[in-house]
Amino acid sequence: MSGPAQVPQAIWRGDDTPPLVWGFGAIGASEIPAGAEFRLEITWRVLGPGPAFAGLAADGSITATSPDGGLAVDQPSGTVTWSYTVDQSAGIPLGAVARYALRCLAGGHTQVWVYGPLKVRGAA
Q1: What is the per-residue pLDDT across 102-122, written as a single tens digit (0 to 9) for each?
Q2: DSSP string, 2-20
Q3: CATH class for domain 5-121?
Q4: pTM for the model
């Protein structure tokens, strides 16, 4: 991997599907090293009052990890999947105020592979 890619993502507030999927390589040509683990970090800041921020703490974060913390790694197909919960998607403010970074942990190293804004859509 030469450097991290910026890839915007979007989910619907209060939903738990569809999962977010990142692809690295192709089937039979995966860029994911055997035995690699991944960590997804999502952070946001609440910038003001209003319905988008109702019931939310001032700032927030979500961390998901593989193999058993919410991220699934399919090395042969080159995909990493986050199957978020209803509570997780409902806890992120509406709009493009959240950011994420997906890191690969392999061979004793940690590296950001993809990052970007996470837009949460839905009614206030």
Answers
A1: 999 999 999 999 999 999 998
A2: -SPEE--EEEETT---SPE
A3: mainly beta
A4: 0.87
